[in-house]
């Protein structure tokens, strides 16, 4: 059982003996070993009174990178971001900690490239760091911290690989591997609605009427309507699957106790399920591409695909439709070629 020690006091074992220390504000002092003794009480109260002052805040130099980050974090641009995006941006801003005391106008492009090396081998993280650094220094230019943006239009040293779409064989292998229910439920929702991982984990039962699933995407392009939601008809396979799930949870994707699953925990569990199924090359986000390709192959228009996936621009959707169109044209071309007399005759094997 943990001893009932006063606040800021901790017991440390060393060389077979127990020692009591008072730790506060990054410092520590040795206390008498008997927490019930009068000597201990006197020493403890003296230290408590002596340290009962908050440490002076660290001074942030005017015009420094630290001051720039401070002001950017309190800006309308940053506060308008969604919480998860803010969290991701802060992780990237932490990488600038090693130069935060330097003047912002002294930062050069080579310094940004050098900091980015800490993310070597992580193409997407490097891309995000470049993006956040560029946004930060754009803010700096607009607010007289610096004259130029040293992170503008940085070339990526290694292009981030696109998430691979799941094939029919991949999907069959995953289903056959009998993953945990939360992984299988998320897979079914991802495959047949094409939504992102975070949105799949938030899908609630009361947003599904047995035919349509209402989804409010958490990641949308700039200038989109914050109140906009998607109404996605459930595929017949998804309908049957959802109908068979227990009805005692508020969300579709829940743990064994019926509680919501945190995104980081889900990612680790889903990765383990993919590895167990022999699908180490795949990611959950690939299901979004699978859904887009399936819709395009079915002959859906770009507008129809956008209505399901929630894209606001045609750029991404056209990758699906153009690929499907090329395959249909190629099939049509070969069928025509095989239908010509010359090809029919040349196809006969000589005996």
How does this model look, in words?
With 351 residues, the protein is mainly α. Helices cover 48% and strands 8% of the residues. The chain has 15 helices and five strands. The chain has helices spanning 38-50, 65-73, 76-79, 83-94, 109-116, 123-142, 168-176, 181-193, 197-201, 236-244, 263-276, 286-297, 302-309, 314-339, 341-346; strands at 9-14, 17-24, 27-31, 212-215, 230-233. A hairpin with a 2-residue loop joins strand 1 and strand 2 (17-24). Helix 8 runs antiparallel to helix 10 (236-244) and helix 12 (286-297) runs antiparallel to helix 13 (302-309). The model has no long low-confidence stretch (mean pLDDT 86).
Please supply descriptive tags for the structure shown above.
351 residues; mainly alpha; hpI Integrase, Chain A; 3 domains; three-stranded antiparallel beta sheet; two-stranded antiparallel ribbon; 8% strand
Write the layout of secondary structure elements.
Elements: E1 9-14, E2 17-24, E3 27-31, H1 38-50, H2 65-73, H3 76-79, H4 83-94, H5 109-116, H6 123-142, H7 168-176, H8 181-193, H9 197-201, E4 212-215, E5 230-233, H10 236-244, H11 263-276, H12 286-297, H13 302-309, H14 314-339, H15 341-346
Antiparallel strand pairs: 1-2, 2-3, 4-5
- What is the fourth-level CATH superfamily of the largest domain? Intergrase catalytic core
End-to-end Cα distance, whole Å, is 89 Å
Which radius of gyration do the C-alpha atoms yield?
29 Å
CATH topology label of the largest domain: hpI Integrase, Chain A
**CATH architecture type of the largest domain:** Orthogonal Bundle
Mean pLDDT: 86
């Amino acid at each position: 059982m943990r001893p009932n020690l006063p606040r800021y006091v901790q017991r440390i074992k060393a060389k077979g003996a127990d020692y009591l220390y008072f730790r506060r504000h990054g410092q520590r002092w040795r206390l008498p070993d008997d927490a019930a003794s009068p000597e201990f009480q006197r020493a403890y109260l003296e230290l408590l009174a002596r340290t009962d002052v908050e440490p002076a805040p660290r001074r942030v130099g005017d015009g420094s990178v630290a001051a720039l980050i401070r002001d950017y974090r309190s800006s309308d641009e940053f506060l308008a971001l969604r919480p998860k995006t803010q969290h991701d941006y802060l992780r990237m801003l932490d990488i600038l900690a090693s130069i935060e005391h330097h003047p912002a106008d002294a930062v050069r492009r080579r310094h940004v490239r050098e900091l980015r090396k800490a993310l070597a081998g992580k193409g997407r993280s490097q891309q995000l760091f470049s993006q956040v650094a560029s946004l930060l220094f754009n803010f700096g230019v607009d607010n007289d911290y610096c004259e130029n943006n040293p992170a503008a239009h940085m070339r990526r040293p290694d292009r981030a690989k696109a998430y691979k779409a799941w094939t029919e064989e991949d999907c069959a292998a995953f289903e056959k591997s009998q993953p945990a229910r939360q992984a299988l439920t998320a897979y079914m929702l991802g495959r047949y609605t094409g939504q992102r991982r975070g949105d799949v984990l938030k899908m609630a039962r009361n947003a599904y009427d047995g035919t349509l699933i209402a989804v409010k995407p958490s990641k949308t392009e700039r200038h989109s309507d914050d109140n906009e939601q998607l109404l996605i008809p459930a595929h017949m396979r998804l309908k049957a699957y959802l109908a068979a799930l227990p009805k005692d949870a508020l969300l579709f994707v829940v743990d064994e106790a019926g509680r919501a699953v945190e995104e980081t925990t889900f990612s680790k569990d889903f990765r383990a399920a993919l590895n167990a199924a022999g699908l180490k090359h795949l990611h959950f986000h690939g299901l979004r591409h699978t859904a887009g390709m399936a819709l395009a192959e079915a002959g859906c228009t770009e507008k129809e695909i956008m209505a399901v996936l929630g894209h606001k621009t045609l750029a991404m959707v056209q990758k699906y439709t153009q690929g499907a169109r090329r395959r249909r044209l190629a099939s049509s071309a070969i069928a025509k070629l095989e239908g010509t007399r010359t090809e029919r005759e040349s196809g006969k094997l000589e005996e």
